């Protein structure tokens, strides 16, 4: 019964999202070059309790950086997570940096060769832990945030009765392309770029034949600026695509200065897709095992799933589920860590969010940990 209820709830979300902009789908946005970047700062207070004992009373701050560039011949990704804080009287920090580059073998196909480097350090490490992965894969990622903004603009124009119906797919794609070229408009027109940028968007709306009158008017410009400049509302990043990678992971250095051991066979993949225009699902996995006598006798698997739903133009619901599974040599059972987290993020203004987070952790055979956190999050870009 619980599974059926969950399926129905997700279906309701998807159906509600599909009520708008049925003329265009996320897969319609195909661009030769796709790029995205994010720099986010957050601070939080966290509290955990097991039974009657308080196990965690911490304050911390963090920085998250994400950037990717994808074109037909070449793509690269850079992720960085930096955190520091204090729990009771103990200070701690965590740094994780992952970067990868890939070269597509054929422009018309999605086969590629890749190289990736992972670096990490925590307060108890004796040195930086580092891994190098070399291999091949298949797939591609596209940032469709510009099209999501075009859809949000269309919703506003329909609600304000500025247009008669949903805009044609071709018009939506053209508007998204104009939105995506914001940097180009800034380089050409300087401080006055906004007038030309909005004028070209309005021209595409007018050319569709759906505009009531000759102009979108003051209210139309106001709604367009709200979406484009994140005034009183925020359109989350939208990605779609997948990739599957197979390669050799070489341990360059261990956190405790122990022997690096043999290379590992690494199999990994990622998937992102917006279910409608207010829901985003992201997933990733990696499995690796030593390529020696421990082959598949010692196995580590990481799995992560994110679900993001825009409850309104200001409020986001975010759920994350992570599984870490490890099997050591001569152990018959896997040691499994489960981490489930939900958050409500309220967009205040000027890229500032207030969040309320709850979490449940079951780490191996340890007692279950329940937690809550109040956060402030600021997106620099």
SSE topology sketch:
Layout: H1 2-18, E1 33-50, E2 53-71, E3 74-87, E4 90-104, E5 111-122, E6 129-143, H2 145-159, H3 169-180, H4 182-189, H5 193-207, H6 217-228, E7 239-253, E8 264-274, E9 279-290, E10 299-310, E11 315-327, E12 335-349, E13 352-363, E14 369-379
Antiparallel strand pairs: 1-2, 1-14, 2-3, 3-4, 4-5, 5-6, 6-7, 7-8, 8-9, 9-10, 10-11, 11-12, 12-13, 13-14
Helix pairs in contact: 2-3, 2-6, 3-5, 4-5
Task: Tell me what you see in this structure.
- The chain is α+β, with helices and mostly antiparallel strands.
- It has helices spanning 2-18, 145-159, 169-180, 182-189, 193-207, 217-228; strands at residues 33-50, 53-71, 74-87, 90-104, 111-122, 129-143, 239-253, 264-274, 279-290, 299-310, 315-327, 335-349, 352-363, 369-379.
- It folds into two domains: 2-28 and 145-228, no CATH class; 33-143 and 238-379, Beta Barrel (Porin).
- It is built from six helices and 14 strands.
- The chain has a 14-stranded antiparallel barrel.
């Amino acid at each position: 019964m619980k599974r059926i209820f969950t399926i129905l709830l997700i279906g309701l979300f998807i159906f509600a999202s599909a009520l708008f902009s049925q003329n265009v789908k996320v897969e319609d946005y195909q661009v030769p070059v796709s790029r995205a970047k994010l720099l986010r700062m957050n601070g939080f207070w966290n509290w955990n309790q097991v039974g009657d004992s308080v196990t965690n009373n911490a304050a911390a701050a963090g920085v998250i950086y994400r950037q990717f560039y994808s074109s037909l011949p070449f793509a690269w990704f850079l992720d960085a997570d930096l955190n520091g804080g204090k729990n009771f009287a103990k200070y701690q920090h965590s740094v994780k940096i992952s970067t990868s580059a890939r070269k597509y073998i054929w422009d018309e196909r999605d086969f590629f060769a890749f190289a990736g480097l992972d670096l990490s350090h925590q307060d108890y490490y004796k040195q930086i832990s580092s891994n190098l992965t070399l291999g091949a894969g298949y797939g591609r990622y596209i940032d469709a945030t510009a099209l999501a903004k075009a859809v949000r603009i269309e919703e506003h124009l329909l609600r304000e009765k500025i247009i008669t119906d949903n805009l044609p797919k071709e018009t939506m794609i053209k508007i998204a392309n104009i939105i995506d070229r914001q940097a180009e408009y800034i380089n050409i027109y300087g401080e006055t770029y906004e007038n030309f940028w909005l004028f070209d968007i309005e021209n595409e709306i007018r050319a569709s034949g759906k505009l009531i009158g000759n102009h979108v008017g003051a209210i139309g410009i106001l709604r367009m600026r709200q979406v484009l400049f994140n005034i009183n509302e925020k359109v989350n990043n939208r990605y779609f695509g997948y990739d599957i990678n197979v390669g050799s992971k070489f341990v360059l250095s261990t956190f405790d200065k122990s022997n690096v051991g043999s290379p590992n066979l690494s199999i990994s993949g990622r998937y992102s897709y917006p279910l409608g225009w207010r829901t985003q699902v992201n997933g990733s996995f990696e499995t690796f095992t030593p390529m020696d006598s421990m082959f598949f006798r010692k196995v580590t698997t990481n799995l992560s799933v994110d679900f993001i739903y825009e409850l309104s133009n200001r409020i986001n619901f975010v759920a994350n589920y992570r599984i870490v599974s490890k099997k050591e040599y001569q152990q018959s059972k896997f040691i499994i860590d489960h981490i489930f987290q939900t958050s409500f993020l309220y967009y205040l203004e000027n890229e500032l969010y207030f969040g309320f987070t709850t979490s449940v952790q079951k780490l191996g055979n340890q007692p279950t940990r329940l937690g809550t956190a109040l956060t402030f999050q600021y997106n620099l870009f």
